[in-house]
Every structure is written in C-alpha cells, then in structure tokens.
Amino acid sequence: MKRLSCDVLVSGAGPAGASAARAAAEAGAEVIVAERRRVVGRPVRCAEYIPAMLAGQADVGRDYVVQRVEGMRAFLDGEMIQDMEAPGCVINRDVFDQAIASAAEKAGARILLGSAAVGREGGDHGPVLLQRADGEETLVDCRVVVGADGPFSRVAGWMGLPRLRCLPAVQVRLPLLEPMVHTRTYFDDEYPAGYAWLFPKGEEANVGVGMTRHPGGGGLAAALGRFAGRLAAEGVVGEEALGRTCGWVPVARRETFVAGDAVLAGDAAGHAHPITGAGVFQAVMGGAMAGRWAAEAVRKGDAGRLREYAREWEDFYGDVLVRAQSRRELWERHRGPVGEIIRTCWVGFREYYT
Ligand SMILES: Cc1cc2nc3c(=O)[nH]c(=O)nc-3n(C[C@H](O)[C@H](O)[C@H](O)COP(=O)(O)OP(=O)(O)OC[C@H]3O[C@@H](n4cnc5c(N)ncnc54)[C@H](O)[C@@H]3O)c2cc1C
C-alpha cells in the first residue's frame, strides 16, 4: 500500500475543502486534498446563486459569473409578497469550484482526484485511508484532518458526530424566455417546509423544488414537473429540459464541528442556511477559517488551537444559524396553510428577525 504524509489532510475539494486547503497552504502547511470525484465541481448540484460580496471574498477572478442579479422576489400562491434587495450573481458553479481548487494548488496544496477518504486506521489520530475506484489504497499520515466532504460527511462519523438532517431537492435547467435580474422563490402548500425556485442564468434558468414532505402526489419530481409546467404556461420559461440535477441540502446546524485533531467545514459542519439551503458563502468563509486554524495548530503542535476555529465561526455566523434553525423547526411543526407562517419563517421579513 502507498503511504503519504502531510500536515493537513482535507477530505473534499468543494468550495469548503478547496478554501481550507488554500488557506492552510498559504499559511505554510503541507496540504493534501482527497476528492472522490474525477473532476472538481462536476456534476453541478446547485441553483448557482451567490451573494455579490462572496465574489470579492473568494478572490479567484470572475470568469465563473454568468449574470448579475439585483434581488430576490418571493411569491405566495402565485402572488408576489416580497421584493428584497439581494445583490449577487448566478454562476457556473463548476468553474467557480475549479477556480478555488486551482488557487489551492497554486498555494502548494496537492489534490488527489478520484480518491475517497474512507476511514481512519486505528481510530482517532490514525492515518487516513484513501481509496480509488480501481481499488488502489493509500494511507496518509497527517496532523490535522479537515472534513469538507459534504452533507453526509464521513469525517463527521469518525469524530463520533451524528448525521445531519437533510432535505431532498430536484432541479431542471430550462430556456428563459425573457431576461430577468431577480431570483424568485415560490411558497405554496404543495411544498411543505420548503419552496420552489427560479434562478435566471443568462438565457437559461435553474428551476427547482426542495421540501420535507410530498403531499401533492407523485413526490418531488412530480411537484417540479407541475411547477415548471406553470412557469411555461405563463411564458416565463420554455418546456425543453436542458439538464437535470438533484441533491441534499442540510437543514440543521451542528453544536460541534471540532473534535480532537479534526474539524468540519461547509455542509459537513452544518453551516448551510437551514431556511434557504444556501451554503456556498459559508463553505468558502468557513473553509478558509478552518484552513487557517489547521495551519496554526500544526505550527504550534497543539490541536487545542482548532477550538479557535469554532469560536471564530460562532462569532461570524453563529447567530444567523441559531435563528434559522429555530425558524426551520417552527416551519416543520406547522400544519396549517404556509401563508400563516411565511413571514416568520422566511428571511427578509421583519417578523423573521423578531
Ligand atoms: C439542488 C441544490 C441547489 C443549491 N443551490 C444553492 C445556491 O443557489 N446557492 C448556495 O449558496 N447554495 C446552494 N446549495 C447548497 C450548496 O451547494 C452547498 O452548501 C455547497 O456545495 C457546500 O459546499 P461544500 O464544499 O461544503 O460541499 P460540497 O460542494 O458538497 O463538496 C463536498 C465535496 O466532497 C467530496 N466528497 C464527499 N465525500 C468524500 C470522501 N469520502 N472523500 C473525498 N471526497 C469526498 C464530494 O465529491 C464534493 O466534491 C444548493 C444545494 C442543492 C442540493
């Protein structure tokens, strides 16, 4: 079996893992990233909206931007109930992820594609076992592990942490018939504790549905079919599907995402927003924080320094997640019409913040 060693082993080269790898390498650590996929960022499982400020924070140029958006409009039973400023961009998410991964490589991180991190030999602090699809195995000795391996994080399991509650989402790419500078979210009793969306992407749109239960019959795919059909009947989108995707959005925060010599970042850490499901911003910001503190722990020879990552994250974003989690619990308990509760449970309404 092959054997490698490094200071920081990162599992996953999504925005969280690549940002962690870049920050740790820039701080002088020797970094290896194991990525299960053969190509970073593909297939895309995202509606591809990011807030404008993230483009500056990510610091990887702007080649991934497809169009700017000015705000977000919310609809209840077909009527617009909110028109909120939310400057941002709709992006080519694969190009974005690849740009961060390239920046990590430029900083000195080594990315092993097609390599899944599948276990730790001898429990805590043991070397991490990587496995390729052809069965080749490699053991990696390291001083810190960063789990940036998405909502069903294996690293979280090694840390003894529970699986996160996730919500399923499906999406179709459709021709957009008129240019649009707003993202749209749609609330309806057909989408319990969830919503449908239309995010404009140049001449196309990402149109999707994510929710907890399926009351309308036929499940999530049928709900998406009905939603896309309504948008087509209104003349907003065309009918010909240009692509489909699906995925899982974590809708619960974690109390703990640091243990021993391991930390979690991004979706693995439960940092996605439990109400909106958005998580790219948090993955980039939290990933970079995790990487900086991982390098610091290596430099000081003290895994205890990793707890500073949790403190910094809680100062930065903890309150947002605590509020969103409480609103999600309320939304999921609610059995009446969504109109009764939407202002308390959706971001941007005054009632959400009181
Ligand atoms: C349908 C859908 C639409 C969304 N739309 C938006 C949106 O518009 N805006 C937004 O901000 N967020 C959106 N999100 C959420 C967003 O995609 C995630 O929050 C974001 O991808 C989190 O980044 P991450 O790096 O933590 O995880 P990921 O992007 O999931 O990256 C994890 C990486 O780890 C790899 N991996 C997994 N297991 C292993 C292993 N054992 N070993 C090695 N590698 C492994 C995976 O292959 C993957 O590359 C959406 C999610 C879904 C499902």
Strand order of the largest sheet: 4-6-5-13-14-15-12-16
CATH topology of the largest domain: FAD/NAD(P)-binding domain
The general outline is globular
Low-confidence stretches at least 5 residues in length (pLDDT < 50)? none
The CATH architecture of the largest domain can be given as 3-Layer(bba) Sandwich
CATH top level of the largest domain is Alpha Beta
Relevant CATH superfamily of the largest domain = FAD/NAD(P)-binding domain
Q: What small ligands are held by the chains?
A: flavin-adenine dinucleotide
When the domains are counted, the total is 2
How many extended strands? 18
Order of helices and strands: EEHEEHEEHEEEEEHEEEEHEEEHHH
Which structural class is indicated by helix and strand composition? alpha/beta
Nearest-integer average pLDDT: 96
User: Largest sheet at a glance?
Assistant: 8 strands, mixed
Give the number of helices: 8
Gyration radius (Cα, Å) is 20 Å
